[in-house]
Amino acid sequence: MSVRDTSLDLPILESAKTEFRKMGFEKSSLKEIAEKAGVTTGAIYKRYNGKEDLFCAVVESCINRMQEVFEQKKRVDYSLYSDQQLKQCWKMDFDYMMWWFNILFEYKDEFVLLLTCSAGTKYENFDHDWVEQMTNETWRCYEEMFSRKLTTVVISKKELHTMLTSFWTTIYEPFIHEFSKGEIKKFSELVCRMFNWEKVFEIK
User: Which of 40, 53, 116, 166 has its CA 20 to 30 A from that of 197?
Assistant: First the structure.
């Protein structure tokens, strides 16, 4: 059995990443991607089913890492948490923000593609879909906290979704505007003050 040549994979993916970032998915050309990678379009089709499949391959590592974080959150059973642990879930601090920013900074090129260049692919609603996922899991935490009377603030899931949309947009924007790591560190402190969830839910 012949072994597939993988030596062209990286040049193709790097060329595709550059083309998608410059032109967006819909206006990108497989011909341009192939030429800049030094391969034929046939070499691309040998590896990918088409332009969307190639785009998905470019952002796959970022998607997988974020989904890994989400699955960890999904496995949490908040009913087993102590009151103090539940309260801690809503504490915004610099270390927590930098934990998120460091993950996303590792995949910043792919992350920006998802946010700004994915129209026409299955990820075109990535930003909204991510918030929807996070809302569902955050709601579970809120319900447990409310049932224990750790908060008496009544909100709807729609309101929580709206607040989390604002929160995640605040995280998205530094990548869209190409903040440096140093700028992100400074920005993290501002985010912690802006999104004081303990104050929102009157957690003592």
Answer: 116
The pTM assigned to this predicted structure is 0.91
Kindly report each contact of residues 112-115 with a partner whose C-beta sits within 8 Å and lies 24 or more positions away, as own/partner: 112/21, 112/175, 112/176, 113/17, 113/20, 113/21, 113/55, 113/58, 113/59, 114/59, 114/62, 114/63, 115/172, 115/175, 115/176
pLDDT per residue over 103-137, tens digit each? Answer: 999 999 999 999 999 999 999 999 999 999 999 99
Sign, Cα dihedral of 38, 40, 46, 48 = positive
pLDDT of 170 > 50? The answer is: yes
Amino acid sitting at position 43: A
Confidence of residue 7 (pLDDT cuts 50, 70, 90): confident
Mapping DSSP onto H, E and C, the string for the chain reads CCCCCCCCHHHHHHHHHHHHHHHHHHHCCHHHHHHHHCCCHHHHHHHCCCHHHHHHHHHHHHHHHHHHHHHHHHCCCHHHCCHHHHHHCCCCCHHHHHHHHHHHHHCHHHHHHHHHCCCCCCCCCHHHHHHHHHHHHHHHHHHHHHHCCCCCCCCCHHHHHHHHHHHHHHHHHHHHCCCCHHHHHHHHHHHHHHCCHHHHCCCC
* Average of per-residue pLDDT across 71-91: 96
Return d(Cα 23, Cα 26) in angstroms, integer.
Answer: 8
